[in-house]
Amino acid sequence: MSAQIESVLQEGRLFPPPKGFVSKAAIAGMDQYQALCAEAEKDHAGFWARLAREHLVWHKPFSRALDDSNAPFFKWFDDGELNVSWNCLDRHLGTPVENKTAIVFEADDGKVSKVTYRELHERVCRFANGLRALGFQKGERAIVYMPMSVEGVVAMQACARLGIIHSVVFGGFSAKSIHERIIDAGATLVITADEQVRGGKHIPLKPAIDEAFAMGGCDSVRKVVVYRRTGGDVAMQPGRDMAWDEVVAGQSAQCEPAWVGAEHPLFILYTSGSTGKPKGVQHASAGYLLMAALTMKWTFDIKPEDIFWCTADIGWVTGHTYITYGPLACGATQVVFEGVPTFPHAGRFWEMIDRHKVSIFYTAPTAIRSLVKAGESSPDHHPRKYDLSSLRLLGSVGEPINPEAWMWYYTNVGRERCPIVDTWWQTETGGHMITPLPGVHALKPGSCTMPLPGVAAAIVDETGTDVEKGKGGFLVIKKPWPSMIRTIWGDPERFRKSYYPDDFKGRYYLAGDGASRDLDGYFWIMGRIDDVLNVSGHRLGTMEIESALVSNPLVAEAAVVGRPDDMTGEAVVAFVVLKQARPSAEEAKRIANDLRNWVGKEIGAIAKPKDIRFGENLPKTRSGKIMRRLLRSVAKGEEITQDVSTLENPAILDQLKQAN
Ligand code: 6R9
Q1: Statement: 536-656 belongs to CATH 3.30.300.30
Q2: Which has the closest alpha carbon to 369: 606, 569, 607, 605?
Q3: What are phi and psi of 576, to 5 degrees?
Q4: Most CB within 10 Å of its CB: which of 262, 267, 366, 519?
Q5: Ligand 1 pocket, residue 397 CB under 6 Å
């Protein structure tokens, strides 16, 4: 890691906030930022309590901010009551926001439709009433497997309105992944669509649900609601499956929300960890919503006239916080996009920014990298060909952004006028944690700069002691914060072990990222320190992919590592030992292809290994541990300079070096 740290710490370019920005920003200048930090430092719980009173509307006020009596199972604003959907919709009724556009939806084929806050409220109420009429109530779990659509947002908001805990499964995940999540969450309801449309192609969704049911054990589910996106031909099982239109038919446009305690779980979102099984990250209602609303104001400086566009999918946490909840809680107008950045051409994003006069644009480094390539190779679709003068702020999320991609984004998209907020956060943190504030921080390409006020981020060594500036270490958060993960659904012990491990005496939240601070106190994120890969901004556990591979009848053993990749950040490389003798080159190609598709079916297309190598064995220590460090070097094509004296079977390395 140290070579990496050295190279980024040499980044000397500095971009101060534009003058006009500072005076109008929600946090206007370094003095205000420091004053907020000092307020939090003085009274951490009191600071968050003040913000929770100012930014949320409570049905019943809370009397206590933080309950840390059962740490690390922290509770925030525990005796207060509210409803998250009420805070996103009803609070705007009777205000000028009521008739404002909430969502500008652009379909894959370019068709645009708009929904005002009043209309969105009506649609959420009708759907919630329909679910209520079917007997669904507070505390039940719903799997949402939906395309990017207004209905996807409506489904999530309707669940929140009734206190039903949603668990959105990304539309790219396989039937097997849905099956696992239905069972782990004990879901009673599934909300899906016939098909999704991306890049001009129809991709089936409902058939994946049927396939999941066919695997057995999904008896907890009482209803599957199917939204008709394309009218594609899908099987409907009488009694169990019901059309969306049927659910809302005849329902009232008013729906009394279920008032819930602040700590009532709002959602579960599965994410990859160090072991084979994805973790159901559980979030609470009030604390989560507070951070969603607050960071819209602090980080994105959202103003009534802004047009906000977050390009994430609602299947990831970014889509939860910065599509379904944050923008609505702030009464903002946002763009929701069904399709992909390169269809029908590589200028789609820039064309849409121009068409909808987007002023705040939030995307991922992987999308930027692919558009750099596309724009350079097809000059007609380069961002400079479009009118991007509506933009005033850019954002990045999901993985470290390399300084070259940052400069391209800053120059070609932001035209050197727009600050870039490089927001570091995680599924577990609920909202931004370390990020520039556009009216405060001078930017350094590749650095997420400084923690938000009230976020006690630090870098420590393995004993939990702060490291000196300029040195690398573990990124931790030393104090609880309102939008933090509450537990892993059904597995509190795994929560404690994963995030508050005994190594740090259980004191600090361990993020799982390596990081360093430079002499100015800026944070630089170096990537995961655990067995989690970041492929195109998506988290994938190496163990998860290994389990998928070994479940194939041909495979005896598998080890998966990451390799740096220009386009996807990291690429998946799998080392596989087959049960049969080592295959011929020809056969190896075919089996590698079959195994790729197998992983696609087991987890989802994003997890398919880019490179599969076969060997008679894997490099192991005499005690039988796979030497992953070595495999990482082999995957990168590096000379092996590590000590191999503990290696049981050194000859194996030569076999594994041969790519297929
Ligand atoms: C929001 C989200 C979390 C992991 C995180 C880190 C990486 C996210 C980043 C970043 C550097 C940034 N990550 N944002 N690394 N700079 N601005 O992506 O959540 O899918 O849970 O991933 O992504 O490694 O630990 P999630």
Answers
A1: yes
A2: 569
A3: -125, 135
A4: 267
A5: yes
Structure tokens, 80: 């207060």
ipTM of predicted complex: 1.00
The residue to which tokens 């598998």 are assigned: 558
Q: Which of 313, 409, 424 to mutate to test the pocket of ligand 1 (most atoms within 8 A of CB)?
A: 424
Name the DSSP letter for residue 414: S
* 3-class secondary structure, 538: strand
Which residues contact residue 33 at a Cβ distance below 8 angstroms, ignoring those fewer than 6 apart?
A: 27, 437, 440, 441, 453
- Report the distance separating Cα 278 and Cα 544, nearest Å: 8
Contacting residues for 251 by C-beta, under 8 A, at least 6 apart: 125, 126, 127, 129, 130, 133
Tokens linked to 457? 């981020």
3-class DSSP state for residue 554?
coil
DSSP result, 618-656:
--BBTTS-B-HHHHHHHHHT----S--TTBS-TTHHHHH
pLDDT at 642 over 80: no
Compute the average pLDDT of residues 314-320.
Answer: 97
Q: What is the pLDDT of residue 5?
A: 53
Q: Which of 426, 428, 432, 484 maximizes ligand 1 atoms within 8 Å of its Cβ, making it the mutation to test the pocket?
A: 426
The type of residue at 618 is L
Distance CA 429, CA 451 (A): 13
- DSSP, res 463: T
Listed residue (611, 586, 612, 608) closest to 599, CA to CA:
608
Query: Where along the chain do its domains lie?
Result: 536-656
Q: Burial, 239: exposed, middle or buried (Cβ in 10 Å; 0-12, 13-18, 19+)?
A: exposed
CB atoms within 10 A of CB 478: 15
What average pLDDT does the chain have? 93
Query: Most distant CA pair in the chain: distance in Å?
Result: 75
Confidence of residue 36 (pLDDT cuts 50, 70, 90): very high
CA 236 vs CA 8, 119, 494: distances in Å: 55, 29, 38
- Specify the pLDDT at position 1: 47
- How far apart are the two ends of the chain, measured CA to CA in Å? 29
Output the known binding site for CoA.
198-201, 318, 536
Q: Using an 8 Å Cβ cutoff, are 371 and 346 in contact?
A: yes
Lowest mean pLDDT among 88-102, 112-126, 188-202, 614-628: 614-628
The span from the CA of 518 to the CA of 514, in Å, is 14
Ligand 1: nearest atom to the Cα of 512: 25
534 CB near ligand 1 (under 6 Å): yes
pLDDT in tens, 563-576: 999 889 999 999 99
Q: What 3-state class would DSSP assign to 425?
A: coil
Q: How far apart are CA 297 and CA 280, in angstroms?
A: 28
- Tell me how far the alpha carbon of residue 194 lies from the centroid of ligand 1, in angstroms: 31
Does the pTM surpass 0.90? The reply is yes
Instruction: Give 513's strand partners.
Output: 528
